[in-house]
Amino acid sequence: MSRHPLLARLALLVIAGGVPPGCGNKTPIQPPGLVQPRPPTSLAARSTPSGVTLTWRRPVTYSGGGRMNDLAGFEIWRAPVGGGPEESLRVGTLTLNDQERFRQERSLEWTDTAAVPDTDYSYRVIAFTFDGYRSVPAGPVEGRFSPSKATPEKPKEEGEPGSPGAG
Q: What is the CATH number of the domain that holds 138?
């Protein structure tokens, strides 16, 4: 065997081994279990004139403890009370668009306008990131749409979308 092909291979190995990876990531790689969002907290349900309104607090850290800045939104799942997981279905998605804001919304709400009056439901909420990591579900919390006993919705503040005088 000639020395030139052997030297050429050796030179390529040295060059390839000396080139740093170009991904630009300067932090250690995290296992998937540490980069999934924590679940939402303080999940509650109440009947309003338009349906069952869920409220919760947004997670701000990953399950591994690091600060989260890529939270994309929440999936809302509903099942009849007493029903099993096979009866659960996704009834909504709340998409966030405040990732670049200095002060992000901490308390969030979503209304199930498809709830049938005088029916008991069990709700769960799952947080998800832009790259598809999902939290364990928050909940369940039970809610009943009772239009006759519904808590009036809070009035919109001046300047909020849908309020009188908002342009």
A: 2.60.40.10
